[in-house]
Amino acid sequence: MDESHASYDERWNYLYFWAGLKVLESLESSYFSQILKFLDTVKSYNDKEKSSYSKDMLNIHKDKFENLKKIYEYLENYEGIDLKIRSPNTPCTAAYKEYVTSSHTLYLREKELCNNRYLDDYCR
């Protein structure tokens, strides 16, 4: 990917969450931390520390990964969600409302949980 591409710095986050989800969906979820360490090796070889990728995510236990993934997706989609909610006469399905409501609730809960917990890898 070219460095001028808008998503250049985000590519490792996408790969991290995609690969993490695939590992957790498989029967081999016991390899979760090993796969993430492998991704870090690939990143180090290809990127040479050019991006602002944080290694804190690599230390997150698989139980916290799903929450972090949901929050990441919610924040990535926030602009679109906000535009859709503010637009008059935009249809809103029950499933979409549930997605927005549950994602927002999770975000607020985890934000409160992480208040003053700066040393916790999950909260960084």
Question: What's the gist of this structure?
Answer:
This protein has 124 residues and is mainly α. It has four helices and no strands.
Task: Write out key terms for the chains shown.
about 120 residues; mainly alpha; about 60% helix; globular
Helical content class: 55-70%
Give the overall average pLDDT: 81
For the report, how would you describe the main beta sheet?
none
> What is the string of SSEs from the N terminus onward?
HHHH
Q: What's the Cα radius of gyration?
A: 16 Å
Helix/strand-derived category reads: mainly alpha
Describe this structure in words.
- It contains four helices and no strands.
- It has helices at residues 11-25, 32-47, 62-86, 94-113.
- The two termini are 27 Å apart.
- The chain is mainly alpha-helical.
- The protein has two domains: 1-58, no CATH class; 60-124, no CATH class.
